[in-house]
Every structure is written in C-alpha cells, then in structure tokens.
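Deliverable D5.2: sample structural annotation.
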Amino acid sequence: MNSYLRRKILPPTVTVLLVLAIWIGVTASGAIPDYVIPSPRAVLDSLITTWPTRLGSATWLTLGETLAGIVLGVAVAVIVVIVSGYLPVIGSAMTPLLIASQAIPIIVIGPLLTIALGYGMAAKVIVVALLCFFPVALNLLAGIRAVDARLIDTLRSLHASRHELFWRVRLPFAAPRGFAGLRVSVTFAPVAAVFAEYTGSTNGIGYLMLQAIPRMQTDFVFAQVVVLTIMSAALLAAVTGLERWVCPWNKPSESDGTS
C-alpha cells in the first residue's frame, strides 16, 4: 500500500500543491492584476457565494447535458460496432465516415444544431455525443479487427459460431480499447457542452461564462473552470472504475503496489 501511495497518490498531490503555491505567490506579489488572475481565496469566495444562486443550477444543467451526450454517443458507437461485427463490410464502409466526421469542428456544428433544434438541451447533448462517438467507435472497431487470427481459426475448428466468436472473443478483446477512447472522451465532454452552450442557451456554465467575461468577473470565470475541472476528473474516475468492473481481465502487468 505504501508503494501504491508513492507511485499513484503522491506525485499528483505534490503537483497540485506546487501549482497552488505558485498561484498564491504570484497573486500575493501584486505582479499580475486581480482582473487577470484572481487569488485562490477570491475564486473560492466566488464559488461559495454564487453556488446557491447561479452556479449550482448551471452546473447541474451542464452535467446533465454531458451525461446524456456521453450515454447517447457510447450507445450509438456500440450499436455501430455490433452491426459491424456481424457485417464486417459495414465497419469498413463506416471508418472513412467516422474520420471525416471529425474534420468538422464542434464550434461549427454547435450553431447549426442550435438553429435546427433551438436553445434547449437537445443541441448540446448531440454535440457531446458526437465528441464521444468517434473515439469509442474507432477504438472498438480497431480492437475487434486486432484479435489474433490464429485464435479465431482455432475456435472455428472447434465449431464456434459467429455469434460466439463476436460476443465471447472479439468484443471482450476490444472492450479495453473502447474504454481507452471513452476515457479521452469524458475528459473533454464537459468542455464540449460548454462550447455548445456558447452558441445559444439560457443557462449552463457556458452561458454564465458569456455573461461574466465582458464584465471582467475573472474570479467567477475561474470558479467555473474549477467546477469543470472537478467534473472532468470525476467522470474520468467513474469511467476508470467502470472499466475495472466490466473488464476485470484487463489488469495492468505491473505490480499494483499493495504488497
């Protein structure tokens, strides 16, 4: 356990404390105006005072959009991969489209969806879903194709059906790769929701940022950034825990440090 703490807990903790110390030192010295970089105390005060009135409701709305988008994006990705598993030609046909879909930046898609769907949650959910769909689908497809052909031939010689090969071999083999794509997706999903809110919304963290920036409420903007950071970290931790539960066979080769 002591080894685990040294390798996993201590380095990020030291890094966060070091950054916080530098932040406090820079703001205390007066070298940078408060409206450019506020002090940690000012950010904390803004977070506490605005949470009951504005920031709390905005955070829950943005979180709801993010979670709904993640679920939608992953669900569509899994469906596409399942269909591709039974019909490989579909997977080959979909790959160029998946890559091409990422050539259109979110900042362009957001306004178009807002025009089509209005200022509600739908446009934001679709933006997040598009962000999550590509990494998960592409990684799952790559994992399914990367299964050792000799293993497949051996199982076929034992009269394994296509159904059994997909659900018992190909999909379990590809699942860790899919989770790798999902970990990347959920880290940026809250930011995607905020960008979508920039294009048109009546609440949410993105809406509050648009209100705060012209008014030079830098401490309030930093408070929202802190909330987004915590949200991304919590989503990443949740996905990591889900992966360990869904894919218990995918254990790291190095010692876990419990000895």
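Annotation notes: Residues 40-86 form the longest helix (47 residues). Residues 229 and 251 are 27 Å apart (CA to CA).
The annotation will be released with the project's public dataset once the embargo ends.
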